[in-house]
Amino acid sequence: MSNKEDKFLEALRLFTNEVCEAGQAADGALRGIGDMSSALERVTQAKRNCRDQREVLTEKLYKVYKGTGKMTEARSFISKAYGVVNQLKELLYLLDTVQVGQMPEELRALSELMGAALLEMQKIMAYTVDVKANFMKIEARSRKIYTLEERGDTCIRECLRLFYGGNQDSMYVLYWKDIMHGLEQILDGVAGMVMPLQKMVG
Asked: What percent of the chain shows pLDDT beyond 70?
């Protein structure tokens, strides 16, 4: 691995850490074990930082991967990670503005899976300091993210059964269904980061 690539991956780790730490704060707020206003502030700052870092990363990736397939994968990874932090902010804005009833337990479980997936991604990025030595660890944690995504699908089915299988208030259903879709998109986004990263460092 070249010195330029090492520096690019170092910058990419900082960028991804911003996203993952924001996700941990959001998960805590969603499940009621953290402060909502602090989480919103953390996510908003993370989006600001990621927006600034994305420009630098884009310049670096052209220098490192220009003319190779890895350039596309790097751009895809950055785009998906930025999409995650964007969705986190939208989700917390909605929850901070208004809340309709109590959050269903099924959504608390989905939020926990989201937080776990982001934590796994953070660990994967830490392994990129030495990809060759940590390749099997990267693969194992990548599979774990896919498993968390599949468990998320189960939570979503349970949510839908709750929403449509009883006499729920329509406003309650619409509100928490929006939250559910937000969590689903974040979890899918984290899972979507795996393949570009594997191709980039593989």
From this structure: 100
Closest CA to 57 of 85, 2, 16: 16
Burial class (CB in 10 A: 0-12, 13-18, 19+), 202: exposed
How many domains does one find in the chain? Answer: 1
pLDDT tens digits along 23-62: 999 999 999 888 999 999 999 999 999 999 998 999 889 8
- Give dist(CA 13, CA 175) in Å, integer: 35
d(CA 134, CA 127): 6
Q: What local confidence, expressed as pLDDT, does residue 97 receive?
A: 87
Domain ranges, residue 94: 3-201
Summarize the confidence of residues 98-108 as an average pLDDT: 90
Q: Say if residue 102 is exposed, middle or buried (CB neighbours under 10 Å; 0-12, 13-18, 19+).
A: exposed
CA distance 116 to 80: 17
* pLDDT of the residue at 99: 84
H helices of the chain, where?
A: 3-30, 36-65, 69-97, 105-127, 131-165, 170-201
d(CA 30, CA 9): 31
CATH of the domain at 188: 1.20.58.220
